[in-house]
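User: Before I run my own analysis I want an independent prediction to cross-check against. Here's the chain; please return only the structure tokens and, at the end, one sentence I can use as a sanity check.
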Amino acid sequence: MLEALATIFIIMGIGVLARSIGTVREADYKTLNSVIYYITLPALIFISLYDAGAAVFSDMNLIGANASALIAMMFLVLGASRLLRIPNKLMGILFLTSFFGNIVYMGYPLVELNFGPEGVPIVVVIATVYNLIVFSIGLAVLQYCSNNINLSEIPSHLIRNPLLLSSAAGLLYIYFSLPLPSVFDQSLRLLAHVTAPLALFSLGVFMYGRNPLANLKLNALIAFLKMAFFPALFMLIAGHFDLTGLAYEVSLLEAAMPLAVTNFILADKYQLDPGIVSSAIVLTTLISPFTLLASGLL
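Assistant: Structure tokens:
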């Protein structure tokens, strides 16, 4: 849907404009991201789970297809990198950027605009699956690639992840059928409603001044792996799980999302050349309207 893409890129463009005229500074991006990551996004996840009820996690085909596609992509990239004798740090970059897309900041509003509010709980399930795998298996691989193996850090990453904590809180409320006082219900909904525009605005701020054409050959490979090969792999695996309907459409759209800004944060933490990753994020985001429309996902 062209209107949905246009809406998303207009809000991102406002973020770029605000950064270019100095209304928002580079340092403000971290503040914006912290507000989204630690406050508004957890509120969105919790309230979406609360509204959807226990049925949201009962679709094992949805969970199995997304988890299997993610793990399969990890092993394919690592296996190919080893066969080609790619250095560890470059292997880490290819590994990180081959599957972890912008499923929330860009994917959530695109799903809501395209499929309506009924698609949001599905995004929450997909995001939970991705985060559990990325912040466990993914971190272990990144630590290996950066020659800094410290597996003891993984439990602390999971315990402190606000997206997983809000998912756990939502599931507890569902399991015990706990009532949510109206004042908290309304507060969480107000916070949740600002997540999509604030996340898109923040992404625009991040993109300002970053060259999408830097490291073009490597980033073209990254774009192919993330936005063509990974969705195709998901389609193959989803067929084995008999995943159909809205769950399949939302999952496939999320699989085809451009790279997440979180990739830059992880690349910086594990010293995997964040400059390459940042330019790949901008490139995949800019070409995403063309790849999504060409693939028939929108």
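Sanity check: The chain has 14 helices and no strands.
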